[in-house]
TrEMBL record:
Enzyme Commission identifier(s): 6.3.4.4
InterPro entries the UniProt entry points to: Adenylosuccin_syn_GTP-bd, Adenylosuccin_syn_Lys_AS, Adenylosuccinate_synth_dom1, Adenylosuccinate_synth_dom2, Adenylosuccinate_synth_dom3, Adenylosuccinate_synthetase, P-loop_NTPase
Alphabetized PROSITE patterns for the sequence: ADENYLOSUCCIN_SYN_1 (PS01266), ADENYLOSUCCIN_SYN_2 (PS00513)
Species annotation: Paraburkholderia unamae
Localization in the cell: Cytoplasm
Catalysis: reaction(s): IMP + L-aspartate + GTP = N(6)-(1,2-dicarboxyethyl)-AMP + GDP + phosphate + 2 H(+)
Binding site for IMP: 13-16, 38-41, 128, 142, 222, 237, 301
Protein name as annotated: Adenylosuccinate synthetase
Subunit organization: Homodimer.
Cofactor note: Binds 1 Mg(2+) ion per subunit.
Membership in a protein family: Belongs to the adenylosuccinate synthetase family.
Active site per database record: 13, 41, 139
Amino acid sequence: MSNVVVVGAQWGDEGKGRIVDWLAEKADIVVRYNGGHNAGHTLVVDGQTYKLALLPSGVVRGKPGLIGNGVALDPEALLAEIGRMAAMGIRVTPEVLQIAETATLVLPVHRAIDAAQERMRAKPIGTTLRGIGPAYEDKVGRRGLRVCDLAEPALLAQKLEALLAHHAAWFRGLGLEPFPLEPMLSDLIAMAPKILPFVGRVWEQLDHAHSSGKRVVFEGSQAVMLDVDWGSYPYVTSSSTIAAGAASGTGIAPSRVGRVLGVSKVYATRVGEGPFTSEVTGAPGDVLRQRGGEYGVNTGRPRRCGWLDTVQLRQSSKVAGIDLLALTKLDVLDGFESVYLCVGYLLDGVRIDYMPATSAEQQRLEPVLQRFDGWDGSTRGTRAYGDLPKQAVALIEAIQREVGVPVAMVTTGPERDDAIVLQSPFA
Ligand code: IMP
């Protein structure tokens, strides 16, 4: 078995897109299994930057891509992204992209609900306002629309009317106008012929891929700390971001997903609200933001920055089933006199080595920081472990020790080959 699942091991934005791009060279298919266009995956290919939200990262190099049933798909966003890719010379056709019939549709009404929910929350989550959460709510509420519904316009109208009737009560309760059927219905009917050629049985394609010995990369979006079950609830997204989500979100058997590669920066960032124990406000945090270009790919929001939290990473690795780590953005730490790892927490003055379940307790945690010497000079573009400064090696080894998971890769720049590979993630 030689499949790999790529999972964000922190709060997202770890650089999963470029890791998937690197793996895609050796794989046959790349599959998205969760999230939607709330994701922002950046790839730099020959100096050209590609920002993907819904498309599997392999499409940039013409690798066949699949979008699984676990994805929340906004048809408007998908067509816009395909258009942006075309303008950059990348043709996304049904030959290279197939979408699961049962993927949930994200509709304009979901964006309106997302915005209204955020406005009424005493403590906003800081969602991407893309409508992702409300679309998943409708899915589990058993009233959602799915990609296959686009094929039957008459039924589509009925289902949409029922959905809007459900939400009308909520909108009225807030003193808002219920969301109108038009132009949403006509727009969907107009988009359907453009989307339907991409629609297929993703589960079956994955089964064939397995029988014919093909290598599949499952591309996770967001991250363990944003997982609806394992993240810092309620400051999370609404999907299963972990390796288990790769099975339920595509139709492949859990025993076939392969090795799990967790991606983590050598420091930490978070976008949106919620607890972030190792956050550094002020000087070193600002330097990390500026050097690391820590602004949202799709929303442009500045990311909160801090030191790597090995307690979080250890716990996340256990629940997400992470077998190997890819550490990204080592070069961002170049020139720091001191670098820190969070190696424990104080909860009301008592040292603990796990992340407590409640948000209130998570907010009260204080980090136990361990200092490491920084290094002079640049690690940018380094491709051999032996060429790293000894202080960088000491930091990587400390991360590996604290987390208890082997480091398979370290990236040192944005290009695909700016990486040190210690172990192939493919079995
Ligand atoms: P939603 O997914 O738009 O509902 O947002 C829920 C939370 O997940 C917010 O804190 C977002 O900032 C965060 N989030 C969603 N997608 C991403 C991502 O791709 N990277 C980082 N954070 C994300």
